[in-house]
Amino acid sequence: MRAALAADLLGAAEARVASWRMAFAGLVPQDFLDAMDASAIASSWVQSIAAGRSRMYVAVVDDRVIGYAGVGPERDPQAPANTGELYALFVHPDHWGTGAGRALTDAALADLRRTGCTAVSLWVLEANARGRRFYARYGFTETTDRTHSSLGNLPEIRLSVGL
């Protein structure tokens, strides 16, 4: 586990695409999954990371990025002070169940603690039972906050945990 380098972004994006295609098949529109472009995703991260709006950690096996976690300040202006956000956590499906997700989550939460966060939130598709079970093991609980994803207007729920 380490902080992402510029050279890691394409590998992280490839892990994201593979994870989305496996985890969200049948949950999000198939045309969206088919159109996911790892190069475009990686390019979009360059500016955000360079500007300091987010930080990324990668899991690497045999010199190949197999997953990533993205963190930063909570995006909701109504959130309590000192709240961070886990923006994304994805592991390539070939590495599900190997501990990579746990290691990435540990790195992400440690980062947020170091920056003074006392709570962390994240958004998850309501239908993503696997993801919700994973986060529950870290103590994340449902809040009353709800929204809808731009992908087919799918319900999302906010989870949170104290640090």
Largest sheet: 7 strands, mixed
Reported CATH architecture: 3-Layer(aba) Sandwich
CATH fold name, please?
Answer: Aminopeptidase
Q: Can you count the helices?
A: 5
Give a brief outline of the structure.
With 163 residues, the protein is an alpha+beta fold. It is built from 5 helices and 7 strands; from the N terminus they run βαααβββαβαββ. The protein has one domain (2-162): Gcn5-related N-acetyltransferase (GNAT) (Aminopeptidase).
What does this structure look like?
The chain is of the alpha+beta class and about 160 residues long. It has a single domain (about 1-160), classed as Aminopeptidase, CATH 3.40.630. Helix content is about 35%, strand content about 30%. The chain is built from 5 helices and 7 strands; from the N terminus they run βαααβββαβαββ. It has a 7-stranded mixed beta sheet, with helices on both faces. Helix 4 links the parallel strand 4 and strand 5 (about 120-125). About 30% of the residues are buried.
Give the arrangement of secondary structure elements.
Elements: E1 2-3, H1 9-23, H2 30-35, H3 38-50, E2 55-61, E3 64-73, E4 83-91, H4 100-114, E5 119-125, H5 129-136, E6 141-148, E7 155-162
Parallel strand pairs: 4-5
Antiparallel strand pairs: 1-2, 2-3, 3-4, 5-7, 6-7
Helix pairs in contact: 1-3
Question: Can you tag this structure with a few keywords?
Answer:
globular, 7-stranded mixed sheet, Aminopeptidase, 163 residues, alpha+beta, 5 helices
